[in-house]
Design goal:
This protein has 129 residues and is an alpha+beta fold. The protein has 5 helices and 5 strands, in the order E-H-E-H-E-H-E-E-H-H.
């Protein structure tokens, strides 16, 4: 499995705000925000449900990872998806950093990935409906 998720109450924009704040409490900032709905409309003229990909990064932990393996940047940042489902419920999904970073065979990366995952799981648990 490469991710984990939860349902959140409230509207889409509120969920984006809620997850951004919860990430901040765990030391993550959002480096990128991709509005997939807007991109699909602009590029393909397709109407989609709201869907955003947030590129979350904890600078301290990212620095540790980059110090251990310079190409690990290919696996960063940790993506968090906020999406509206067909029934209009809101799902927040998190990339499992352990599943991804375990591809890197460097000392300490497995433990570091576990720390990142634990923080993201705390974010998930804090926003769950």
């Amino acid at each position: 499995m490469y991710g984990f998720n939860t349902k959140v109450s409230g509207g889409f924009d509120e969920a984006v705000e809620k997850v951004t704040e919860a990430l901040k409490e765990e030391g993550f900032g959002v480096l990128t925000e991709i509005d997939v709905k807007a991109v699909m409309k602009k590029k393909l003229d397709i109407d989609k449900k709201p869907y955003k990909i947030l590129g979350a990064c904890n600078p301290e932990l990212a620095n540790q990872a980059l110090t251990a393996e310079s190409d690990i940047g290919l696996l960063l940042p940790c993506n968090v998806v906020v999406r509206e489902e067909e029934d209009e419920s809101i799902t927040v999904a998190f990339m499992d950093p352990q599943a991804v970073l375990d591809l890197v065979q460097q000392p300490g990366i497995h433990e570091l990935a576990g720390e990142v995952k634990a923080r993201l799981e705390r974010v998930r648990d804090s926003i769950a409906s």
